């Protein structure tokens, strides 16, 4: 029996998929293509890609509970895709993937990804010549809710106003966790400038790049503020880009 909470997240993911492709200029032609989903979570994007005619979709993640749901959901509700969709626990930097892909996708994962330079190198190696990576992620750490609520600093930008040690002590006191660094919360702490530098210095060609994509009414305020140099770092909340090998 699938957990109702997981079903809810999966269904939210289906709605987010529409926004993901729209913000990247539209869904590419996926028919008979081989696709890797980096940070597949509950698997909604993988199944969206399979429904679009992909030949093979390989979803990888590090979270056992998410992969458990993804595989059970595939078995129960999407049996007709079992021959082309697989979900696996794989650390892309530690395990060899003996497969080349036409596309790599990643939705809302890069804000959690450590050693992003090395991850992009691995992605580049996993793509066929001319292959593309479709990436969209946020909120970025320096945005008002860039800690995803994980630091337990509940007011906007408060996770930036206090020292890491203060936050670590607070989290350890208020939760069952015992962390040694902020990254233990699944946050890479990369700034907007960090991402720009990492992407620019990667082996990829940047085919498409845009920031601050949202339909929320309040986003218009942040979009205006982000045009001012003094506020750009703290009012840029997401990045969408297409990188080509």
Instruction: List the total number of helices.
Output: 9
The CATH architecture of the largest domain would be 3-Layer(aba) Sandwich
Low-confidence regions: none
Shape: globular
Radius of gyration from the CA trace?
18 Å
N/C terminus separation: 42 Å
Query: CATH homologous superfamily name of the largest domain?
Result: Vaccinia Virus protein VP39
Portion of residues in beta strands equals 15-25%
Secondary structure tally: strands: 7
Proportion of residues in helical segments: 25-40%
In the CATH hierarchy, the third-tier topology of the largest domain is known as Rossmann fold
How many distinct folded domains?
A: 2
Helix-strand sequence: HEHEHEEHEHHHEHHE
| Broad CATH class of the largest domain | Alpha Beta
The description of the largest β-sheet is: 7 strands, mixed
Mean pLDDT metric? 97
Structure class:
alpha/beta
What is the strand arrangement across the widest sheet? 3-2-1-4-5-7-6
Summarize the entry for a quick read.
The chain has 245 residues and is an alpha/beta fold.
Describe the protein's topology.
Blueprint: H1 4-23, E1 34-38, H2 44-51, E2 56-61, H3 64-77, E3 85-89, E4 101-107, H4 116-126, E5 127-137, H5 158-161, H6 164-174, H7 192-200, E6 205-211, H8 219-225, H9 229-235, E7 239-244
Parallel strand pairs: 1-2, 1-4, 2-3, 4-5
Antiparallel strand pairs: 5-7, 6-7
